[in-house]
């Protein structure tokens, strides 16, 4: 093995300074892998990528080795950096490869390394320009995981604009605002869903909870009455109108004891 490797390592060491030197790195590392010398190949590729971070064959080979070794931290870092570089390339195929690398880096930060903030920072690269529906939804989930609820709500509102909105999406926006301490914004989101005719029982239930917790009993009563009028179920109508009446009725003091 040493005899076979000797001419390649000699050639590598004597390579001139310049971009062509990266080809010698890659060739020697590939030969080492063929000979089963993974540790040496890994070290050589690390040196190659450190010196020539834009040499795609060396980067791809190093990414493959990290993945095979399940060496998650350097894999995620390299995939993130390389993904960012390829995303800036005008070639659509290279840009698509960059997206895949960023998505993989995000997955590793989130799942393997349990670093939600780093996952958010990696995936944020895909929010530039015009992100797709699936990308906005994925980013909102990452923001929720990282506890960045105000930004999550803003991303979900972008998703609403893109898709036209839905009851489920309205609830997600309202929940994000609520978790971010912006209860009034959550209330506005659900009230807009009501005005636009997108009010499932769950939307009304959450809105009623907000009204009740904030002491807005007039709005709560109006919501209950509207629910009663919107139903053909007699029992449901009676229950909602009775609840509305209880909400509106002022609290009465207990009767005084008879002397």
Provide a compact summary of the structure.
This protein has 259 residues and is mainly alpha-helical. It has 14 helices and no strands.
Q: Whole-number radius of gyration?
A: 30 Å
Uncertain runs are 1-6
Percent of residues in beta strands? under 5%
Structural class determined from secondary elements: mainly alpha
Number of H/I helices: 14
Distance between the termini: 110 Å
Q: What percent of the residues sit in helical stretches (DSSP H or I)?
A: over 70%
C-alpha geometry: rod-shaped
* Mean of residue pLDDT values: 83
Largest sheet: none
Order of helices and strands: HHHHHHHHHHHHHH
Number of strands: 0
Describe this structure in words.
With 259 residues, the protein is mainly alpha-helical. It has 14 helices and no strands. It has helices at 2-13, 20-34, 38-51, 56-69, 72-87, 92-112, 116-123, 133-146, 149-163, 167-179, 183-195, 201-214, 217-229, 234-248. Helix 1 (2-13) runs antiparallel to helix 2 (20-34), helix 3 (38-51) packs across helix 4 (56-69) and helix 10 (167-179) runs antiparallel to helix 11.
Write the layout of secondary structure elements.
Elements: H1 2-13, H2 20-34, H3 38-51, H4 56-69, H5 72-87, H6 92-112, H7 116-123, H8 133-146, H9 149-163, H10 167-179, H11 183-195, H12 201-214, H13 217-229, H14 234-248
């Amino acid at each position: 093995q040493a005899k076979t490797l000797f001419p390649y390592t000699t050639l590598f060491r004597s390579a001139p300074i310049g971009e062509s030197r990266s080809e010698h790195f890659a060739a020697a590392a590939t030969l080492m892998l063929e000979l089963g010398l993974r540790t040496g190949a890994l070290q050589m590729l690390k040196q190659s990528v450190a010196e020539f971070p834009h040499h795609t064959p060396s980067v791809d080979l190093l990414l493959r080795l990290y993945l095979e070794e399940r060496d998650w931290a350097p894999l995620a870092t390299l995939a993130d950096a390389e993904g960012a570089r390829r995303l800036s390339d005008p070639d659509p195929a290279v840009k698509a490869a960059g997206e895949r690398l960023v998505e993989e880096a995000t997955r590793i930060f989130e799942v393997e390394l349990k670093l939600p903030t780093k996952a958010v920072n990696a995936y944020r690269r895909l929010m530039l320009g015009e992100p797709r529906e699936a990308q906005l939804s994925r980013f909102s989930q990452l923001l929720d995981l990282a506890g960045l609820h105000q930004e999550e709500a803003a991303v979900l509102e972008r998703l609403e604009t893109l898709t036209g909105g839905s009851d489920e999406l309205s609830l997600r926006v309202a929940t994000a605002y609520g978790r971010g301490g912006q209860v009034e914004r959550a209330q506005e989101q659900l009230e807009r869903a009501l005005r636009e005719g997108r009010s499932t029982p769950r939307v009304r239930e959450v809105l009623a909870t907000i009204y009740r917790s904030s002491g807005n009993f007039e709005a709560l009563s109006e919501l209950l009455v509207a629910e009663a009028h919107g139903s053909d179920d007699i029992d449901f109508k009676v229950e909602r109108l009775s609840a509305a009446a209880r909400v509106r009725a002022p609290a009465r003091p207990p009767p005084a004891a008879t002397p």
